[in-house]
Amino acid sequence: MAATAVVDHAAAAATLHAARQQRRSVAMLTERWPELTSEDAYRIQELGLQLREGDGERIVGGKLGFTSAAMRAAMRVDAPNTGWVTDAMLRHDGVVDLDDHLHPKVEPEIAFVLAQDLRAPVTSGDVLRATAAVVPCLEVVDSRYHDFRFTALDNVADDSSAGAFVLGDPVPVDGIDLRTCGVVLETDGEVVATAAGAAVLDHPAAAVAWMVDHTHGRRLEAGHVVLSGGLTAPVDLSPGTTVRVTIDRLGSAELRVRAPRRND
């Protein structure tokens, strides 16, 4: 029997980092290292974040993936995963340039802006008390793997498919039951999906609490924004389209898709 190859965390992180920089997809890490573990995947994620920080990016918050029961069933996992977002990913003008991405899709989310550091263990109530505001959010998920195909562990290593995000205006969370907030996702004025806040681990604050209790070295801090997870299935982005999410009692966020200029 052939010996199992030892996972080269640094090489894997460098491969994904180059794929992000060059906008070129790569083979799944689990094809090279079938015995990849969760610990390996999060170590690769961390090394990739360090490479991005070395390029001048700054961590501004966290994000969750696989927060819906349907997505966990599809990926054959029993828990969410976590990643991190940087200042370079925030689209202040709401414009998402397809030249910046490989396989971009968009998900509506509820984001939390933290007023206090969060340390494990925490409850949903602790998260809400530490929250300065909640914000309608559109997250652009992307994957550095061929054809947007990956396992759950590949996804972790690839920073939970973090791509970009757009935020609406912040709203105080006091008195708002986030579980019952209705969500409408539109593309060019046509409704393409609906949901409610409870689609994310039964309560978006529960997702943030889960991240606090399952971080891998980094911590959520005051001022961080936390993307609590997709409220609907992801929707493909097409050149020239406008995507808008409207969340009851929270407001809306909108992005516009700029067509690619490259000729691949």
Could you characterize what this model shows?
By secondary structure, this protein is α+β, with helices and mostly antiparallel strands. It has one domain (9-258): Alpha-Beta Complex (Fumarylacetoacetate hydrolase, domain 2). Helix content is 24%, strand content 28%. The chain has helices at 9-22, 29-32, 38-54, 69-75, 124-129, 152-157, 204-213, and strands at 59-65, 81-86, 95-97, 105-114, 131-141, 162-167, 182-187, 190-196, 225-227, 235-236, 242-247, 251-258. A hairpin with a 3-residue loop joins strand 11 and strand 12 (251-258). The longest helix has 17 residues, at 38-54. The chain is globular, with a radius of gyration of 18 Å.
